[in-house]
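Reviewers of the previous submission asked for a worked example of the structure-prediction workflow described in the proposal, so we include one complete record here. The input consisted solely of the amino acid sequence. No template or homolog information was supplied to the procedure at any stage.
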Amino acid sequence: MKQRKKRNEQQNDHHRWVVSYADFITLLFAFFVVMYAISSVNISKYKSLSEGMKSAFNKKDEARALTSTKSIKDGPQTKQFKGPFNDGLDELNQSLADLEDGNYKINRQEGWVELDINSGALFDSGESDLKPEAFVKLMRLATKIKKSSSIVAVEGYTDNIPIETPQFPSNWELSAMRAAVVGRILNSFGIETQRILVTGYGEQYPVADNVTEQGRAANRRVTIIIALNRNIPRLLNPSLSQPAAHRVVIGDKDIK
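From that input alone, the workflow returned the following structure tokens.
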């Protein structure tokens, strides 16, 4: 009996794989049905969806373009200047206003700004050593102009009273040395040497009559010219009908 029962169980075991196989076939069929359904794209619906997305993105791009155009139109207008040499000089002139006093005078010109400094505010009579109080003024001046690319010309002038010392054989040497000292100070406060021109004119180009002490005091001066470029004739000579100046250029080994 035991052998017959065991034999029947073995026969039944041989047919169990059919159930698993049937399940596998069913799942495989379902898989292919799903795959077929996914691969069957509705062309008309696809085109409609594609056109709708294109339209949406095009409207967004158009809105961006309109916004950008409106921003440009509504933006600040470029400041107009009267001439090619006015760019930045009005702002500079205003910036230098707080330096102006009885010894420092600002003169705005076409293409440059002049700062006339009475020599008495910078030097003792017949000397080229800068007074301590002058350092502060020159430091403030350098701070205002060092970030620009302007040319800074420093001109020295004297009265017509002759000077003859071992250090200064004439007023030319005195005026040139004073201008060079001011130029060096400006350079030490951050203005590049290639931007600085130093000129000594001596007693030439007076701005007042040398007959009176008041006139001679006005002629003893240092003028600092802040110009947009080197092509301005004023940088070469205040008056072309006058004799040439004794010229020194900082940053250049040649001294005339």
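The chain has two domains: 2-74, 89-248. We consider this example representative of the routine output the project will generate in years two and three.
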